[in-house]
Amino acid sequence: MSDAAILIERLGTRLGGQWVHRDLSLEVKRGEIIVLAGGSGSGKTVLLHEMIALRRATQGSIRILGHALSGISRAKLLSLQQCWGVLFQQNALFSSLTVLENVIFPLKERVVLEQEMLHALGLLKIRMAGLSSRVAGRYPAELSGGMQKRAALARAIVLDPQLLFLDEPTAGLDPGLVADFDQLVLDLQQALGLTVVMVTHDISSMRRAANRVAFLGEGKVLCTGTLDEVMATPHPLIKKFFAEGAQHGN
After folding, report:
1. With 121 labelled, which of 78, 235, 239, 243 sits at a CA distance of 20 to 30 A?
2. Average pLDDT across the chain, whole number
3. Domains with residue ranges and CATH for the chain
4. What is the helix (H) or strand (E) element at residue 15, kind and residue range?
């Protein structure tokens, strides 16, 4: 089995007449937590959306768990999508559904199970995400921002995925809650053997959670390595990013 959970080669993405990515290549290793970092407009979220097949690249290739996304059949893509979970920046919880109904929604769409088993699995994932089972009957609007993140994370892991994609998962949270969430991601990654791809601008999160950082700029991956290795790279975009992050206390 290849060590690469995700392999991206010579990717190009053109949006609105502009190239967002040009000749971008990246390998995500199985079992690692990799952070996609870079300045505003560097295409981090666009790249994540391409990895989960919400957007199609203009050129190049993306292979997920050995399967090329280019030309993939709808049936094969639906099968492959069961191998990953996603936490979007705005959580994307259904406001009209309870926490439990939100969490088990992907299960009901893809697996035939008795209602009792669905609820039991949903409650298990809610607890794994650090929430009390007492919140299962609440609606998203009744939860704090941090609790909403955890509810969305519970939904993201409900299908026991191999891959977990996190788009700015701690945006808007207080520093203490950010640290708690980072630790939760680390705990889940270890417990479930996950490969995690996380988009974040939070340097403290990179320090706590990332095995590697991939820094995007000029349409490509400028460098990859540990946080310290990336921070030591003498590229002006990289130096500017971390200098500004230090000024804002990240």
Report:
1. 78
2. 93
3. 29-57+72-83+162-250 (3.40.50.300), 93-160 (no CATH)
4. strand 4-15
pTM: 0.93
% the chain with pLDDT above 70: 97
Token readout for 74 is 């709808």
Distance CA 199, CA 174 (A): 18
Return the HEC string of 29-62.
ECCCEEEEEECCCCCHHHHHHHHCCCCCCCEEEE
In whole angstroms, give the CA distance from residue 205 to residue 119. 32
Measured CA distances, 70 to 64, 80, 189, 240 (Å):
11, 13, 28, 35
Closest alpha carbon to 16 in 40, 37, 46: 46
d(CA 181, CA 171): 11
Q: Are 152 and 88 contacting, i.e. CB atoms less than 8 angstroms apart?
A: yes
* Of 63, 39, 78, 37, nearest in space to 197 by CA: 37
Locate tokens 């975009």: which residue? 237
Distance of CA 140 to the CA centre of its chain: 20
Task: Give Cα 21 to chain centroid, integer Å.
Answer: 19
Long-range contacts of 107-113 (CB under 8 A, 24+ apart): 107/158, 107/159, 110/82, 110/159, 111/159
Beta strands in 91-210 (DSSP E): 163-167, 195-199
